[in-house]
Design goal:
Elements: H1 3-23, H2 29-59, H3 67-107, H4 111-114, H5 137-155, H6 157-160, H7 162-168, H8 173-201, H9 203-221, H10 227-239, H11 243-254, H12 260-292, H13 299-306, H14 309-323, H15 335-341, H16 349-358, H17 360-369, H18 373-390, H19 395-407, H20 412-427, H21 429-451, H22 456-477, H23 489-517, H24 522-544, E1 549-550, E2 554-555, H25 573-578, H26 583-587, H27 592-605, H28 615-618, H29 625-636
Helix pairs in contact: 1-2, 2-3, 5-9, 5-11, 5-12, 5-14, 8-9, 8-10, 8-11, 8-16, 8-23, 9-10, 9-11, 9-14, 11-12, 11-23, 12-13, 12-19, 12-20, 12-22, 16-23, 17-23, 17-24, 18-19, 18-23, 18-24, 19-22, 20-21, 20-22, 21-22, 21-24, 23-24
Length: about 625
């Protein structure tokens, strides 16, 4: 064929291809892209052949190609076309793969879409909005708070009606103090046991099970007829207070370390509010039942009817924790789901117990917490009868005055957590320790002053001021507890709360011993007991708190090391938290679950002058091979 005929044939083939394309159905984006690239190759093939023919004609206008030259020339053109077509097919395949990956990524929700609040690398919430209830972070907060509130409300409902109950059941002071001690012993034992249970099965199932199991004892309290059954029911209802372990574990797993003290304090404070609400509400409920039919219902019958209200609320909260949509143990799902899918390693509760109990900080903080949480339990049990006997108030007025101690939980414990977080922002962990130190010593001094007060108005003022410092010291304590051991968080929290409750056993044992040995008047006996408890608070805090020391952050009177790196030594955060795992667990990568927490805690608990790193750079030593491969693929793309 001549060059002119070659150009005409190319134009006819192009028109035929265009007509054929118009008759074809529309294709996907990736296929149409590949088709366009093929047409570009074809067009370039014909254009190049035309240009080459023109250049040959220009060099030698009279030259005509022989059959052999024309065959070689055509063969070379088709080889180039095949190579280009192979490149087009490869590019088309790459485009299709990229489009498929984009569709898959679009199906997976991002962190911003999955959570309605900003989160850190562990998907823990970085903000705390108490007016919100969205899942999973703030819904967990409200379920944990109301679950703990229901246990406190149910346990201390009978204490608010004690002036009537002791006459109806002929209870002596020894019987009442024994019942109070039995209640706190039940709390202490179950707190210690529930910590490993939370580590193994998660806080959600632990809390709901405990609330539903102990509710029948609250119902039985309304039917008791003698001192023995009264003491047994008080012991079992006291066990329900151990849900504070689950509530603290839950919120510590949902909110970042920069606000964990505030969230834990608010959860526990509003939960403890149940004691104040019961002291305030139950006398009015009992009087309202009597007012319905004064001729047939006496106060010795009405108190039994009133005691049916708290366990109903307790059962309701137990069911809601289990079945409410959005209720889950961790930001990414429930324990069962994460372990089943392989996103979380199956916990080893025995190893966690061993590590948590081997850490001396656990026991020091537990004894110190007995001087704040133990005091709260003791005061909640004795304050209403104390004002009833010492100042001659009526049952309703004594309940209102006594409720002021617990009602301050609505803001005082949160204030302690807030002060702890703010002091950590400026001074690191040492700021948290100093906040606890000052608050708890002040509370002990105020209790000593309260025990010596004999006038009603100053006594009420001292009681409320003392309550403010007691609750803030509890909030400041749980700004420190989550940093003792990440692996054994449930064990440490349960031990601190359990031994803290035993502090109340010791204090109420003092009430019991003094009432048995020196019973001239109830008022003078209680004043002497309150004086001893106040002196214990001051002495124990002065001696034990300076001994709490963190390798990377220092202690009360000892500063942190001047040089800190992430070399996995026991003097830095990663080395401190990974030391809870043995060599086999480190080889299997179980320790990686706490590595991100170690870096996050370093950014919040170090002194501001030492916070000169970013979490991305600090996690270099603990990344998995899978994460490295993902980063390499992103760089190649």
């Amino acid at each position: 064929l001549s060059d002119d005929d070659d150009e005409k044939q190319a134009e006819e083939e192009a028109r035929a291809a265009k007509k054929k394309k118009a008759q074809m159905p529309p294709r996907s984006h990736s296929a149409s892209s590949g088709g366009a690239m093929r047409r570009i190759v074809n067009a370039s093939f014909f254009v190049s052949s035309s240009r080459r023919s023109a250049s040959d004609r220009k060099k030698n206008p009279h030259h005509r190609l022989t059959d052999e030259e024309r065959s070689d020339f055509a063969r070379a053109r088709w080889k180039r076309a095949y190579r280009r077509l192979a490149l087009v097919r490869q590019a088309d395949k790459h485009v299709q793969e990229k489009a498929k990956q984009k569709v898959e990524r679009d199906k997976e929700p991002s962190s911003a879409a999955k959570f309605r609040v900003p989160v850190d690398v562990q998907h823990m919430s970085l903000v705390f909005r108490v007016w919100r209830s969205d899942a999973p972070h703030h819904r967990a907060f409200w379920l944990a708070t109301l679950g703990y509130f229901s246990s406190f409300f149910s346990t201390f409902a009978v204490a608010a009606l004690l002036p009537i109950t002791r006459d109806a059941l002929n209870l002596t002071d020894v019987d009442i103090n024994t019942a109070n001690v039995a209640s706190v012993v039940g709390t202490a034992v179950m707190c210690t046991f529930l910590g490993p249970v939370c580590d193994q099965f998660g806080p959600r199932l632990s809390m709901a099970s405990l609330l539903l199991i102990t509710a029948p004892a609250s119902f039985a309290m309304a039917c008791t007829t003698n001192s023995a059954t009264f003491i047994v029911c008080r012991c079992i209802t006291g066990i329900s207070l151990a849900v504070v372990v689950g509530s603290t574990f839950w919120t510590s797993s949902m909110f970042s370390s920069c606000i964990v003290a505030l969230v834990n304090a608010t959860t526990a404070g509003w939960g403890n509010l149940g004691g104040g609400v019961s002291n305030f509400l139950m006398p009015f409920v009992e009087q309202g039942i009597v007012a319905i039919s004064p001729s047939t219902i006496t106060q010795y019958t009405a108190w039994r009817v009133a005691l049916f209200l708290p366990p109903v609320f307790q059962c309701l909260m137990g069911v809601l924790i289990l079945v409410l949509p959005g209720s889950q143990d961790l930001p990414d799902g429930t324990y069962h789901h994460l372990i089943t899918t392989g996103a979380k390693h199956r916990p080893n509760s025995l190893a966690a117990m061993r590590r948590g109990w081997q850490n001396y900080r656990t026991w020091l903080l537990a004894i110190l917490f007995g001087m704040s949480f133990g005091v709260e339990l003791t005061i909640s049990n004795v304050i209403a009868p104390y004002f009833y006997d010492a100042f001659g108030l009526s049952l309703a007025k004594a309940g209102v005055v006594g409720s002021s101690f617990g009602l301050l939980n609505i803001f005082a414990r949160s204030l302690g957590g807030f002060l702890s977080d703010q002091s950590a922002t400026r001074f690191g962990m040492r700021g948290r320790l100093w906040t606890l130190y000052l608050m708890q010593i002040s509370a002990g001094c105020l209790m000593i002053a309260f025990s010596r007060c004999t006038a009603l108005s100053p006594a009420i003022g001292l009681l409320m001021t003392m309550a403010l410092f007691v609750h803030t010291s509890k909030g400041a304590m749980f700004g420190i507890v989550p940093f003792v051991s990440k692996r054994a968080l449930g064990v440490v929290g349960g031990t601190v709360l359990g031994v803290g409750a035993l502090g109340s056993v010791v204090q109420q044992g003092i009430f019991l011993a003094i009432s048995a040995l020196a019973p001239p008047t109830v008022a003078s006996t209680d004043r002497l007991c309150l004086l001893i408890v106040g002196m214990m608070m001051v002495t124990v805090t002065l001696v034990l708190l300076p001994l709490v020391h963190f390798p990377a952050w220092g202690s009360l009177f000892r500063s942190a090391p001047s040089q800190l790196t992430f070399d996995r030594s026991l003097t830095d955060e990663i080395g401190y938290y990974i030391s809870d795992y043995d060599e086999d667990e480190v080889r299997r990568g179980v320790h990686l679950e706490v590595a991100a927490f170690a870096v996050t805690s370093a950014e919040t608990e170090r002194h501001p002058s030492q916070r000169s790193m970013r979490s991305e750079a600090s996690l270099v030593d603990v990344k998995t091979d899978h994460e490295d491969e993902d980063e390499e693929e992103e760089e190649e793309e």
